[in-house]
Amino acid sequence: MVSSKVFPTEEAREAAIVDLEKKFDLTTEQLKTISQLLQEEMKVGLSKYDISCNVPMLASWITRHPTGQEKGEYLGLDLSGSYIRVYLVTLHGQGRITTRQQKYLLRDNLKVGPVSNLVNFMAECVDSFLNFVNKVDNTPLNLGLCISFPLHQTAMSNAYILQWTKDFEITGADKKNIVELLQTALRKREVPVIVKAAVNGATGCLLAHSYRSLDTLIACTVSTGTNAAYWEKTSDIVKLPPKPSANPDEEMIINTEWGSFGDTKSETLPHTFYDIRVNRQSVNPGIHVFEKMCSGLYLGEIVRLILVDFTDRRLLFDANYSTELNTAYNFESAYMSAIERDETPDLTDTKHLLENVMGLPKTTLSDRHMVKRICELVGRRAARLIAAGINAIISKRNALEAGLSISMEGTVYEHYANFPDRVNSALRELYDDGFERINIGITRDGNGVGAALAAMIASTPQ
Asked: What class has domain 63-213+444-455?
């Protein structure tokens, strides 16, 4: 019996890839347009207190740059995902820092329910850590709290969580100062710690990098999600109450929360059919639209949807599926990186991932080359979107001529094959020779170190 399957020609497969390239390639001009639109949204966010702004531009109330010469011991507590990390940060001056840290597993039952359970566990972690580092003499230590959720702040020590993201569903935290909640929990346990400040993760990373590189302007995270913080002129933060004797050169760290760029104006971003589907089928449709195009949680899902579409069109895998391929979020961003790194003649690593991990019965070398190209297109676009975001901030501050440093961090930026090179390549297109005035470094443990630096700033008179 003759098979009813009609297999595509190589020409059809090539035409499909060319069409996909047109959808995912972003020209230099497109990057400039995206950057300009983001700048406009940033200005709106700087002008009004409104979490519904596409880019909320949240004030940190940190207006003092570290000098790199500060000394002392401070604690940092980082709540970001599956772990709570507690740091003892020693500032030695001359931009040098040493740290000791411990991480504590945050059980799933603490990510849901009353905020008191979460805060009490945080206090328990701090208590345990002080014993670990042998700080048991009851001499009070100042602590900074880093929380990787959007914060509304009226001061460094007044912080209210606007939205619990990721897999957190916390109740009872509305209109409650997280700094006071933690201080109360520590006091009940008689832990000799004073909570001095709260910061967002991107703000923490910016402070940490600023201690060693005084010209640091931006901190950017590309991980499960994406965000950026930067030093903005206080005079340009229109929504702040005016200070009669304000220093015209004073700056404040602004947490952009740029992941939500495009939320109410999705046409500002070059969406494909696959992006629209990821957004529509996500747990938060219409929220964090920019993030869904360039962060680790979503990149693999974009690729999976393309693979399913191409399989539907009989362009891949002899039109064969697997349960794994048909399951949302089953194709991880880490797989994309491994496939892009695969330089073996037969793409052996790719074959293993597709057949042994994704459960496909058989793949051809042509299939594997096609999958690799799809991963490259999605990964490259993500890096170029991040570059457009960075360009928006540099242009907003007109910072290129004087030169600047950028702090980068996150699992995607640090571990995804070619991601930093692609960001750099896009920035070079945007700035030509001016790119040489940009110094990019990676900040590790930035959340904890930055939280400790915030505690130092809040407890040290100017």
From this structure: alpha beta
